[in-house]
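Researcher: We're reviewing a set of sequences before deciding which ones to prioritize for further study. For each one, I'd like a predicted 3D structure that I can look through quickly. This is Ribosome maturation protein SDO1 homolog. If possible, include the structure in token form so it fits the rest of the review sheet.
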Amino acid sequence: MVNVDDAIIAKYEYSGEHFEILVDPDLAAEFRNPDGQDVAIEDLLAVEEIFKDSKKGDKASEEAMNKIFETTDPIEVSRIILEKGTVQLTADQKRQMQSDKRKLVINKIAKEAINPQNGLPHPVQRIENACDEAKVKFDPFTSVDQQVQTALKAIKPLIPIRFERVKVAVRLPGSAAGSAYSVIHGFGDIINEEWQQDGSWIGIVEMPGGLQDSFAAKMAEISSGEAETKTIK
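Model: Here's the predicted structure for Ribosome maturation protein SDO1 homolog, in token form for your review sheet.
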């Protein structure tokens, strides 16, 4: 539980009524992040009290809470305030959250998109530059998936790009196949596989187009350079 002196205010106004709670700035930001981890309300509150004016210490009346929230439970009321109200984040917090969300969005595009002109992934730096040129704005409180679509639409006039899944054939020596199996599943789905008479393993893996280069490099690493990979057209 955060110290009251270090807490920030979360506010909610509805039908002429005003409510405030005191919250941990980092945990409140994490709670409101659609891509973040679950945060318990009890952990982010400085005090389990609902205020009309927290600076004056004026508590909200039970009548007002029942009228707006149909409950006086401070945990449930706090949840609604955080979900529907506003949180006074610091400027540094906002900058950091925007930077983090930008990185997540760009990395997801790099992972799943290809250049349709050659079927190859775009480097992350190219996607970053296109986003900067298109002046894509990143919202810390909007999900990665939503912002990926917004960013993709904005940069399409600048670079040839589309989301596509590809099939990659891979051959591994028997000595490496066992340890590689769980790694392969981290890249995509094995849609066909068989063991060869010489003990080697051959499979076809379907994965996001942007991962094919990383996949080839990882297979080479696991097999000490003996892996063979080929994107199936």
